[in-house]
Amino acid sequence: MTDPIRSLEARFYTxxxxxxxxxxxxxSQTWQFACHLSDLAEIGSYASFEIAGESLFAIRGRDxxxxxxxxxxxxxxxxxxxxxxxxxxxxxxxxxxxxxLTGELRAAPNIRAVEGVDTFDICLxxxxxxxxxxxxxxxxxxxxxxxxxxxxxARAELEExxxxxxxxxxxEWVEIPENCNWKVSVENYSECYHCAxxxxxxANGVIKPETYDxxxxxxxxxxxxxxxxxxxxxYDIQSGYAHHDAYSSWFLWPMFSFQVYPGNVxxxxxxxxxxxDHVVVWRGxxxxxxxxxxxxxxxxxxxxxTTVEEDIHLVESVQRGLGSRGYRPGPLVIDPCGGVNxxxxxxxxxxxxxxxxxxxxxxxxxxx
Length: 368
What we know:
The protein is of the alpha+beta class. The protein has two domains: 32-139, Rieske Iron-sulfur Protein; 152-358, Naphthalene 1,2-dioxygenase Alpha Subunit, Chain A, domain 1 (Alpha-Beta Complex), CATH 3.90.380.10. 24% of the residues lie in helices and 28% in strands. The chain is built from nine helices and 17 strands. The strands form three sheets. The chain has a seven-stranded antiparallel β-sheet, with no helix packed on it. Strands 11-17-16-15-14-13-12 form a seven-stranded antiparallel β-sheet, with helices on both faces. A three-stranded antiparallel β-sheet has the order 6-7-8, with no helix packed on it. Strand 15 (256-261) and strand 16 (265-275) form a beta hairpin.
């Protein structure tokens, strides 16, 4: 017999100092979603975004390579771009210092009057970036291992489930604010222990909860399940591809998930941490060419009205409970056989959370 593994203490979800440490640590040293590559289709097209409190932008060069830079001029630190657009060169709005699409300084007004300045040494600061099935991910850690090492087999599996991924473009983005810590929301997504009781549409109309299981693949949590009788689905699932009659999900630690519904319909989650008590979940739905698709619109609307709305109430109630002086971290339900009623994926998440915050080694006999 060993002592049970207990959930993290409330301070991991409520303490602003913990959140600040996360921004400097786990959020700055992991692969984070930046944008969809359809935003960068043409030479000179760019998109700005924020990761771990840093403003960044991605831009497609004349060599067709996509590069990501910190969004700051090397002269006197003015931000270079905002939003998305297309440009021939990158021009700082402050003093018109001008950079090539590769980041090298091209020109600066009156710079020749300054002795000893070698403009060839002035360049925007580049950030690690990888393309992943039409999505761009970045990592502020220049020494980070590639995504394949973080998420082994995820790319190959998704290519099998989404053989048409190169043709997919965003049909809609929906921002869903939740009044909770980002980790509360991620944990809720990463177990189906609560599904049968709280998600009747999802549990009775899409998946068979008793077959739902989540297992780690590196820092990916792989969701698998059998589906209910698909003749009752609210849309036509006959896509012509393998796995059209199945559902699966790949959660990429710490803040992104690919979710494939029956019919090979892609839906993504991107968690954007705001502060210790707030997160925005950016939901994406995709169609071939990004063109209007009524069945995907209907699925997205059904999902928002049921599972999404139900989860908002759950995670916000948890956050309120974490603020109670009466809360004592209870034991996680860890079933050695796995399965829907086991919280072993939460155990993995909480281990990664601890390591990302303070580097304390996780052990089963640590009450955390």
